[in-house]
Amino acid sequence: MNAQLLSLASLFAVCLATSIVPGPNNFMLMRFGMRHGRATALASGFGATLGCIVWCLLAALGLAALLAAAPWLYKALRIGGGLYLVWFAIALWRTKPDAGDPTGEPAPLGWQAAFWQGFAINMTNPKSILFFASIFSAYVGPNTPAWAHVAAVAICVATCLGWQIAMAWLFSTRRAADAYARAQRPLDRASGAIMGAFGLSLLWVFD
Question: How far apart are CA 191 and CA 89, in angstroms?
């Protein structure tokens, strides 16, 4: 029992560290918060949390064993994720500034679009694939008690959701929105370059 609790505490630490490490989902949340406001950023964060739930379920059902038995599936996930991130990067790079809008407001992004974009980014995020196929799978192995499985999923989902909410709140503040308004084009292109780098890294390595 004590060993399981210690293991779950270490899982929380790893989940939090993985969430903090910069990646496609964090950059998307930052941009949505600064450009479209808190509601849109939260919708995107909830979509990313749904992706986390799906990855947890896949890991509990034997994701690591499946990828080990079918290496082509892992390559397909990497190629699909890489192509999606490159496409998203190009869209960011080509985004036009809002200076021409007479209202001074960015074009609205519906919460449904933001939700599913958050879900898609998380499902194609290389951090997610590696984390849930390796680290998280170790906590939901066949010898782990059922209550520990449930606790591991709850810890992972709660950590993911808490981080998404914190990011959405922080980067939708007036100061963040003003900073984005002053430097929209370079920020969009910087985000696009980072997203593209993540995507190309998935397409470049085929070991």
Answer: 7
14 inside domain: no
Judge whether 124 lies within some domain.
yes
Rg (CA), the chain: 18
The structure's pTM equals: 0.67
Listed in sequence order, the DSSP H helices in the chain are 2-20, 24-36, 38-60, 63-69, 71-93, 111-123, 126-130, 136-139, 146-170, 174-182, 184-204
The Cβ-side half-sphere exposure at 110, using a 13 Å CA radius, reads 3
pLDDT tens for each residue of 77-128:
667 767 766 776 787 677 665 543 433 445 556 788 889 988 988 887 766 7
Q: Tokens for 171?
A: 């980067």
Q: Is residue 6 part of a domain?
A: no
Distances (CA, A) of 132 to 126, 144, 150: 10, 16, 15
Query: 110: burial class by Cβ within 10 Å (0-12, 13-18, 19+)?
Result: exposed
Domain residue limits at 149: 25-204
Residues 6+ apart with CB under 8 A from 109: 32, 36, 40
